[in-house]
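Hi there,

I know you've been waiting on this one. I reran it after we fixed the sequence typo, so this is the corrected version. Both the input and the resulting structure follow.
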Amino acid sequence: MTLGLLMIGMLACEPVVNVHEEEICINFEEPVVEEFQNNQAYVSDNLVFNNSYTLSEYEWEGVTYSSETWYGFSLSAMCDSVSSGFGNQYSCSAGKAAGGRQFGLFYYSAYDADSSCFIQFEQEQEHVIKSMQITNTTYAYLSMRDGDAFAKKFEEGDYLRIIFKAYKANGDYIAQKVFYLADFRENKKILLNSWQFVDLSSLGKLNKLSLHFESSDTGIYGINTPTYVCIDELIYIK
């Protein structure tokens, strides 16, 4: 059974310039992080990758405790492809970034589905997002491959997919594209653990690209499958 997709159509993350357009590549190499950075939005070349982060503190019997919650974007340099569980949520299942040392990842929260994960151009600009590289996090990959205390092992008929939805600067919906991080429908056995090139140019000029997750493993409280995705080498046309 093949659990990984071959990398096809891979493009080097190098700017391309011609008379009419310039291709900007965002590779998430700056700022340099030792492990991850999940507490703020990421801004690069007029693109904002959203983040929601809350640090809570409380006191019990004279001792102060703290906890954090977050969703949206995080920078990461973690590439542990073998350790399962939530503690390894920032690692890439491919074992390395698509190009350099670092990559980005999104964590999708169903409690804020409409604004949980999105990429948006500053100052109401509209450009074509041409492509990006995508793969599963290790946490999500191993959860789907083996199952865990919260989510099932994927079997025939199961899937995890991302719906990319494009919007104009005035908020009007443009179009969408679906990409499968795992697809066990119709005798397929696709479970992504290598970087995959995703062409998004058909969405046209957009101001905002939102990411939504859907899974066959969904209960009364929402999706059971870990809803994460690693991204790298995003290219847009300026």
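Quick highlight: Helices lie at 138-146.

Best,
R. S.
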